[in-house]
Amino acid sequence: xxxxxxxxxxxxxxxxxxxxxxxxxxxxxxxxxxxxxxxxxxxxxxxxxxxxxxxxxxxxxxxxxxxxxxxxxxxxxxxxxxxxxxxxxxxxxxxxxxxxxxxxxxxxxxxxxxxxxxxxxxxxxxxxxxxxxxxxxxxxxxxxxxxxxxxxxxxxxxxxxxxxxxxxxxxxxxxxxxxxxxxxxxxxxxxxxxxxxxxxxxxxxxxxxxxxxxxxxxxxxxxx
Amino acid sequence: xxxxxxxxxxxxxxxxxxxxxxxxxxxxxxxxxxxxxxxxxxxxxxxxxxxxxxxxxxxxxxxxxxxxxxxxxxxxxxxxxxxxxxxxxxxxxxxxxxxxxxxxxxxxxxxxxxxxxxxxxxxxxxxxxxxxxxxxxxxxxxxxxxxxxxxxxxxxxxxxxxxxxxxxxxxxxxxxxxxxxxxxxxxxxxxxxxxxxxxxxxxxxxxxxxxxxxxxxxxxxxxxxxxxxxxxxxxxxxxxxxxxxxxxxxxxxxxxxxxxxxxxxxxxxxxxxxxxxxxxxxxxxxxxxxxxxxxxxxxxxxxxxxxxxxxxxxxxxxxxxxxxxxxxxxxxxxxxxxxxxxxxxxxxxxxxxxxxxxxxxxxxxxxxxxxxxxxxxxxxxxxxxxxxxxxxxxxxxxxxxxxxxxxxxxxxxxxxxxxxxxxxxxxxxxxxxxxxxxxxxxxxxxx
Lengths: 224, 447
What we know:
The structure holds two protein chains of two kinds. Chain A is of the alpha/beta class. Helices cover 50% and strands 13% of the residues of chain A. Chain A is built from eleven helices and six strands. Chain A has a six-stranded parallel β-sheet, with helices on both faces. In chain A, helix 9 (181-188) crosses helix 10. Chain B folds into three domains: 2-200, no CATH class; 222-302; 312-447, 2-Layer Sandwich (Heat Shock Protein 90). Chain B has 17 helices and seven strands. In chain B, a hairpin with a 3-residue loop joins strand 4 and strand 5 (384-391). In chain B, helix 2 (13-22) crosses helix 8 (129-159) and helix 5 runs parallel beside helix 7 (100-124).
């Protein structure tokens, strides 16, 4: 957002949230970043969302985690197979790790909390549209937690997917500490691009690893 | 209702709920109704309950039953009928256990009654002998079986079993099962004795077959009725649980959210106050929804957490302690503190010091950084706990801190040093501040 390139088109965004008030709020906030982000439509239910996304073919869907009829995960399940090019960014007030991990595993490219500033939100939208992952500190914490080694955790079946590399772990820790990508890059003496690669790799592992079947994960979390 | 239920047990939310369900009669009627007593109980608690109901000493009631037994065996019959029609008193009313003396006294009275009856019968020779023995045996058996049913009901109250019917005969110790079998045998024996005395020996097999056939027939005919009864019971129960849950949510929303909204409207002129109110309300609601004992965690987790709360832990887990510390600073200094905690562990003295040091670091950030946001990240590893407190504020030069400022030196460094922890400070003017606190979880790790 700080340096919008002149020739790039605004990202086309579709809002899904069952609270009309909240949709209106996000719309107004994003309107302030009109050259960067353009809201093309919105939906208040799973059914509306599926129809709306198929109709508008947005670049990014801002997806609420909690909704009646299955929530964000259900939208992902119904839309993604037919529209692989549409990117999802979860936006939620939920603090429940299970819910957040569920939408990430459902295919969302990131998760941000609803208290995020409008500038950050626009930046996150732009980032997922360009193919990167967006990890809020909270999501980074959940993922670290999910991949942590502890007695009683499920055995590692596939080291490629079930373990984070030390570097990925470091990046996640810094994310959880509230560092921006640029700050992480200078902290670890790597390029921002490399940070993005690590984060995308963590996202892929979170989505594909079978290590933490969700219910299992939720119970493991109470151990230590 | 709440005060009555909380005294009863510690087995968690679900059983309390159940107790409340079972007692769902209004208080006014509750004390007027005859309930079988648990405190004064030898067979079924009928005498005790009756004494309570009539407000006379138990011994009088027992004596009354004895006299009635002596006169034509009316006592046991009355007792059995009362047992059938009076409900068992809920468990919390049987706080005081009956002493052995009272039990002996009661049994002696019962024996006396039966003895007197025998004597009177034999002396007068009026009543047929065939009547007494089978009836006595049968009633004895029935008493055993019914006692077991009472026991099962109490178990259900205690354990908070959800399905009403399986708890009736199902789970129970081997002893309980033995008592059941003996009771059933006694009842059958009583009926059998009666038959053998009344029916000529050659007729016994056909009569038995006829009885069996009738029983099976009645059973088969009434199957749908039984099933419906069970289903209705379950439906009603789950409906009641749902209602209760809805009430709980409504009450919570009223107490917290509505009150806060009202306050916010009153304070609309002062944005600082509004932000503060909204923030603290959000935190409360989050704790309620997603916290370790939270609503969204489901009943099982809540019960588990309740059990854990019984353990002699002064301050729960590290996660909770950090959340509390962050909340306090948010409220006091009007900043927003974003906290991320990975893992969790119970609190101890060292970790308490760690949380206090972290709190001080958050306070410093809130007071001096000049920005409204502080990030807190805590990671609990098997050996150590690390907490990072970070702000993107103006930072400072550690060399330039005046000697009279003790926050960092005493409250953070001193505390951490005393407990074997380490402090790392990263800051410079314009670069924000990050305090890293590291504390070993076990004493050995100090070296």
